[in-house]
Amino acid sequence: MMEIDRRRVGEAIAAFAALLASGRAPAMGGESPGRVAPSHDMSAMPAHWHGKERVAFLIYPGFTALDMVGPQYMFASLMGAKIDIVAKSLEPVRSDTGLIFTPSKKFDDALVDFDIFCVPGGTQGTLAAIRDEATVAYVREAGQRARFVTSVCTGSILLGAAGLLDGYRATSHWVTKPLLSIFGATPTDGRFVRDRNRITAEGVTAGLDFALSLVADLRDEKYAQGVQLLAQYAPAPPFNSGEPETAPKDVTKMIDGMFTQLKQDMREAAGAAYAKYNKP
Amino acid sequence: MMEIDRRRVGEAIAAFAALLASGRAPAMGGESPGRVAPSHDMSAMPAHWHGKERVAFLIYPGFTALDMVGPQYMFASLMGAKIDIVAKSLEPVRSDTGLIFTPSKKFDDALVDFDIFCVPGGTQGTLAAIRDEATVAYVREAGQRARFVTSVCTGSILLGAAGLLDGYRATSHWVTKPLLSIFGATPTDGRFVRDRNRITAEGVTAGLDFALSLVADLRDEKYAQGVQLLAQYAPAPPFNSGEPETAPKDVTKMIDGMFTQLKQDMREAAGAAYAKYNKP
Lengths: 280, 280
Prior knowledge:
The structure is a homodimer of 280-residue chains. Chain A is an alpha/beta fold and 280 residues long. Chain A has helices at residues 2-21, 65-76, 124-130, 133-145, 155-161, 206-218, 221-230, 249-258, 260-277; strands at 54-58, 82-87, 93-94, 100-101, 105-106, 116-119, 148-152, 169-170, 186-187, 192-195, 198-201.
């Protein structure tokens, strides 16, 4: 029995290896080099290690690239999954740090029932997205149809503006977390907060933690541990300044003070969108 | 004195806020919305909080996006810095997980003395880059001219192939770390390893830690703590599986087994490039 298990593990490794090493990423836009080669004996691999999830990340001008690229790394390791990068048009989109991404789908071509729909955050760019009717309408429809509705950082403010967090516990970047209540969400502590099929992660880097955890849910713990090891995700921040409670007081005050106006603008814009799109 | 210091801190916050909140990113390609507005009183902000670093990230087909986007987030917060994304041509470049980036500069236009030159890793894509003469030649020249020569993940194998790690302590993704000795580097433990002006980070997510640490060196601890808080970088991985020593043994064996062929190919390619470009 032990021997059989060992052999099966060996075969699983070979299959996993062949899949991931030779174009480990599920491709966007149709082709899929990450799919198993027909010659491979899939029966040796745990059946649940291979899925067919459809994953979509929204992007918009001024979004924070790391909010999207962190989780995208994790979800790209889901064998058999297909990832789309969805924007208002197929024109390149510039992130808040100046990175330029080409989307794979535009709104009209991305109205499907995604398994994971993920909205990254940002500052002025997210505010502009909240004020953009077409973007909020797309988030609302894609979110209503998705199996998991997820966000990183201020992406939850966009989800809330679209009426998707009403009655849900949620989180956001610590700066914007208090805004959650304006659209009926309950601000809740946690690196990420899951309430039914809504998963909201706190600021920027929390996307890594939420996504790796969701990989474990969609496959299993061993699979996710493999992905973590592949990413060598053994973080060692040089300071203990990642949360407002652990950062030096003057640092927290400085960063919080940077966003007084943005918070007010987001509160108004999200409140207005929520009221407009969510009338009974 | 206390009052004066408080006022100065307040002014610094206002300046920092205005700079970062209104297009906090140093722009690519010439324009620079992140620069201070002329109306601002810069004398209130510590002079060393504003720099003029030139930062370049190499990208190439099949690179791992997270290796670049993590550090790019951190360096984009350096007030006054300018970041370029450099590739062989200005054509869009596809990452190993299918993300499509538009470079800001091509090799010929990016032969300047960068303050930070950073090379991300990958698997098959990095192997192809090591085999590409033009790419290795560019890495060699840009690296020889840079103030800090840095890498994330298997990016160090590309640095080494270009002869930039000969006689240096260095690290890499744990899978490829043993390869470092083929081009005269000494494999060394650490989330990232700094030896003189070479800084090599281990796999993928280690880019966040090395870059935040370098932000502290280039500005100061308080500045870097502010950036960490902005990124809410208080990581909480769901498992303790980020290093080969802490992951379950069968998981480490599985992931290591995925790369047997790649390691052999990288060893040959990097050894050949090193011998060719680094003859006495």
